[in-house]
Amino acid sequence: MKHIRNFSIIAHIDHGKSTLADRFIQFCGGLDLREMSAQVLDSMDIEKERGITIKAQTAALHYKARDGEVYNLNLIDTPGHVDFSYEVSRSLSACEGALLVVDASQGVEAQTVANCYTAIDLGVEVVPVLNKIDLPAAEPERVCQEIEDIIGIEAIDAVRASAKSGIGIEDILETLIAKIPPPVGDVDAPLKALIIDSWFDNYVGVVMLVRVKDGVIKPKDKIKFMATGAEHLCEQVGVFTPKALQRSELRAGEVGFIIAGIKDIKSAKVGDTITLMKTPAAEALPGFKEVQSQVFAGLYPVESHDYDNLRDALEKLQLNDASLKYEPEVSQALGFGFRCGFLGLLHLEIVQERLEREFDMDLITTAPTVVYELLMKDGEVIHVENPSKLPDPAKVEEIREPIITAHILLPQEYVGAVMTLCNGKRGVQRNMQYLGRQVMLTYDMPMNEVVMDFFDKLKSTSRGYASLDYDFKEYQASDLVKLDILVNSEKVDALSLIVHRQSAQFRGRAVAAKMRELIPRQMFDIAVQAAIGAHIIARETIKALRKNVLAKCYGGDITRKKKLLEKQKAGKRRMKQVGNVEIPQEAFLAILQVGDK
Amino acid sequence: MSVIDISALSGGLKELPPLSLYIHFPWCVRKCPYCDFNSHEAKNGFDEMGYVAALLADLESSLPQIWGRPVTTIFMGGGTPSLFSAAAMDALLCGIRARVRLHPDAEITMEANPGTFESDKFKGYRAAGINRLSIGVQSFDPAFLQGLGRIHNGDEARRAVDIALTHFDNVNLDLMYALPGQTPEQALSDIDTALGYGITHLSAYHLTIEPNTLFARYTPANLPDDERSADMQEAIEARLAAAGFEHYETSAFARAGYQCRHNRNYWTFGDYVGIGAGAHGKISSHAGVLREARYKQPAAYLKAVAAGKPVQEAHKVGRQDLPFEFMLNALRLTGGFEEELFAARTGLPLVLIARELKQAGQDGLLERTGGLIRPSLKGQRFLNDLLTLFLNDGD
């Protein structure tokens, strides 16, 4: 066991985590050159394109160190985005150490800080590495200082490396062996294996990536999941190099996979503990929790006959993504669709993109919302995740909205602009800390303001330099109202939203104005209204078209005339009919395109 | 009008529709920036007798398809047919009479553009048998004519109409409105000028920016907006109605008895042979409805005729496309069509489009009374929306 090192890599998007992992694999001979596609561990197209890691992956590497010994290095690649912080914490708790990879030209970012704190909290040894050292803009001294200032770990002797050019790879591996402790665990104790991640494979069913803390697991063992209570027969165990390699057993301290003929990913939850039925562990490993959806949005097929296809696609996605929740929903405006719950905005975007790309779905997505907590007059507390389902205000004692604590790390020069942005989003400043040239702003903010468009605005306000990390703080009572949008007097349920009373007037006017831009003129006048209850607060009129007719049509080119009309018709088919009005897809996201006052 | 019962052969069409002949003349003095027709600048002149011979050879190659059927109308369009001499036209019409049964009462229209008018020439056209003229005036206002890239000015336009009316009693003027910078008053002024002459027919076209034209690439900045151009259209329709012109098709107005029979044949889904460069034809037979197109480039066309194969593209109109193609034409007629015409022309029962007809009725776009199917006023204004109902989506 003393030759095992389990570690993960903490890095901000684009700071070179995946490239570094690839270098390790190459250096240790995990794959031939011909098998190396750029960034091996990010296997989904979206991961490669966006440069982010969504699913955890591992590689078991054999490294012959300078001391002549062969070490077994288990790299656990973790997701790197705020939406996936629970997955990150599970990955980290499977390790004894973590490489903190920081771009030597850009410095520390908020996400990295958050993950580092998680690692330190879990007792994981953090080893700093400066990457991209060969860039002309690299400032290793400044960045080392920043790591010490912001994260509070020694960084003076941080390894200087360039994953891209292959500089310092061996140094990193040596430092890793020296600094990161070997795993501790009792091979003879009852089995405790932590599920780091799980996914569905078409041939073998659910594959679980585990870290064995105590004991040994072999094929034919009867296993039990301590949180869900599910029981299964272990069929295969093995490691990823990153190719899957079967082994006869997995022992305490090791990281590998277990296949147990499981059909449903929901019974192999990330963070759960696997033990043996014969000799069960007394208690599960700490830290397991059910992941809660933070952000909800309606997903609707553009063409209603695609509803079944959408359901199939969601089902398939869920096989690999237990954090995706969905249930059927009917909207008067959009017809049959699904209310889906996501970990965060990025998660939503990823699901949406995968549906469109891998399943060829044409979707309308409603504006994302958060979960509101309602105290009813009768004392009951209910949760509402869809603005159009908000009960009659007369029955509601108070509406509470989720508040998050946001940590924003940004260069000094943008502090003023970002503070203005946060205040405009009803943020309450909690702290401001100068850390070298960077500033850490801490704000409490209503989450519904954040899911709207905060991230995009933050990026544009700070020219992309600000980074954001947030976690849920509490539910807070607030003066919230439901804003409805009516098109020719018909309420468009998919456009309802919950807003603070103070901004309702402005939002209503802005959405109505935006809708007027987005809805094309039709054969009749269209009134777009914004209303709070029965009170109309804004109105815009889309004047009727006067005509739509081809001036000339003789015996000539009938085919071209036909194509022209087919094009008109295709344009219409991509719109949704509300009452007699055709509304284009973009209009359902009008609220996101509205500025702040 | 004589018809031939072929129901025994077709199983669909009970009788063949009337047959027209379209002849295309592909040359112009200059290409106009809004024009998307098959027209070419005649920079180095052209061999008019050679082209007439090609047209007759082309017609001959089509004879087997229209064997025995009388031709009821002829339309000579362009391009600028009036670039051809009266002698050439005479030779052409003689050649046609020798090859097909031309109805004694046939309407024979020729398009002419101001700038090509000489009194003697038009006298000659009349003598050759042409009995209707359609003049591409577009506007009488020199500023707009220049904006449209026309080769004539206002005075030449007036002179052309004078000459035309000296020799012809059945004359159409083409006018355009919604021109760059045009006010409704200016549009009406053109209409009034036209009405000051003893014309029988007027076509008022909303200037359309067609793809692949100079105007599509460099669209004039000051085109009247939708509101303004719709105001113009309504004012024009009112003015023409007051002057006793019936608005019988989207852009066509005529005095009683002077509707263009040739165009009406298109709009009632009749048959037509199209000869000349780029001409389109539609011919019904026991095998169904055939559409064909000639080679577009004059040089390519002449070569193809010499080789005995002037048709570049031909296809049978599928059953599923017939209702739309019928409606695309027939619903342009403000008076609509008699219910029986649908089955007579397409060979399909009307019940096939019962659902679409009902929908169009509910949308207020279509009216059905006394065995007639016609677009409502709203249906005329929003004809595209009405027509898309009949498009076949394949579902």
TrEMBL record, chain A:
Compartments it resides in: Cell membrane
Q: Superkingdom, according to UniProt?
A: Bacteria
Question: EC number(s) of the enzyme?
Answer: 3.6.5.n1
User: Has the keyword 4Fe-4S been applied to this entry?
Assistant: no
Q: What is its main location?
A: membrane
Q: Tell me how this protein sits in the membrane.
A: Peripheral membrane protein
Class of enzymatic activity (EC top level): hydrolase
Looking at the record, the residues that make up the Tr-type G domain are 2-184
Key word Amino-acid biosynthesis present:
no
Alphabetized GO MF terms: GTP binding; GTPase activity; guanosine tetraphosphate binding; ribosome binding; translation elongation factor activity
Q: Tell me the residue numbers annotated for binding GTP.
A: 14-19, 131-134
InterPro entries linked: EF-4, EFG_III/V, EFG_V-like, EFTu-like_2, G_TR_CS, LepA_C_sf, LepA_CTD, LepA_IV
Instruction: Give a short account of what the protein does.
Output: Required for accurate and efficient protein synthesis under certain stress conditions. May act as a fidelity factor of the translation reaction, by catalyzing a one-codon backward translocation of tRNAs on improperly translocated ribosomes. Back-translocation proceeds from a post-translocation (POST) complex to a pre-translocation (PRE) complex, thus giving elongation factor G a second chance to translocate the tRNAs correctly. Binds to ribosomes in a GTP-dependent manner.
PANTHER family given in the database record? TRANSLATION FACTOR GUF1 HOMOLOG, CHLOROPLASTIC, TRANSLATION FACTOR GUF1-RELATED
User: Which family is this sequence assigned to?
Assistant: Belongs to the TRAFAC class translation factor GTPase superfamily. Classic translation factor GTPase family. LepA subfamily.
The name this protein carries in UniProt is: Elongation factor 4
Instruction: Give the originating organism.
Output: Craterilacuibacter sinensis
Q: Which gene encodes it?
A: lepA
UniProtKB/TrEMBL annotation, chain B:
- Please state what the protein is called: Heme chaperone HemW
Q: Where in the cell is it found?
A: Cytoplasm
Q: Which GO terms describe its molecular function?
A: 4 iron, 4 sulfur cluster binding; coproporphyrinogen oxidase activity; metal ion binding
Question: Tell me, which GO biological process terms does this entry list?
Answer: porphyrin-containing compound biosynthetic process
Q: Does the keyword Protease apply?
A: no
Q: Which GO terms describe its cellular component?
A: cytoplasm
Domain called Radical SAM core: residue spans: 13-246
Looking up SMART domains in the UniProt record yields: Elp3
Q: Which Pfam families match?
A: HemN_C, Radical_SAM
Q: Which UniProt keywords apply?
A: 4Fe-4S, Chaperone, Cytoplasm, Heme, Iron, Iron-sulfur, Metal-binding, S-adenosyl-L-methionine
Similarity comment: Belongs to the anaerobic coproporphyrinogen-III oxidase family. HemW subfamily.
